[in-house]
Design a protein that fits this description.
CheY-like_superfamily, Rossmann fold, about 120 residues, alpha/beta, phosphoprotein, 5 strands, Sig_transdc_resp-reg_receiver, Bact_response_regulator, 5-stranded parallel sheet
Length: about 120
């Protein structure tokens, strides 16, 4: 069972997506902001992080940069989940260090495919 850290400030989105992931066999931990996400990662390294870009305290892109600069966390795959669908938003996410990018509303099959690809790559 893969451990997923879901970082999402919208409670409804957080609960809906976490339930869907748990039903598909993932263990899901939650964070509602960037600071909490950094604490959760320090407590236990997740297998993959789903990261919202717009967070109330530390911007999701800044959290990604911090994680990718740290030798302990740089190999944890990060999928950006955002309502921002412009090409420049995608480019900013990848420039910050995101491994994958997906837009809301979440298409669960598309997201699961991206997650499985990243988890398989990390396991090999």
């Amino acid at each position: 069972m893969s451990d997923i850290l879901l970082v999402e400030d919208n409670e409804m989105n957080r609960e809906m997506l976490s339930r869907r992931l748990v039903r598909r066999g993932f263990s899901v931990r939650l964070a509602e902001d960037g600071g909490t996400s950094l604490r959760r990662v320090a407590e236990a390294l997740p297998d993959l992080i789903l990261m919202d870009m717009t967070l109330p305290d530390i911007d999701g892109l800044e959290v990604i940069r911090k994680l990718k600069e740290d030798a302990r966390t740089r190999d944890v795959p990060i999928v950006v989940l955002t309502a921002r669908a412009m090409p420049e938003d995608r480019a900013r996410a990848f420039a910050a260090g995101a491994d994958e990018y997906d837009v809301k509303p979440v298409d669960i099959d598309r997201l699961l495919e991206k997650m499985r690809t990243l988890l398989a790559r990390r396991a090999s």
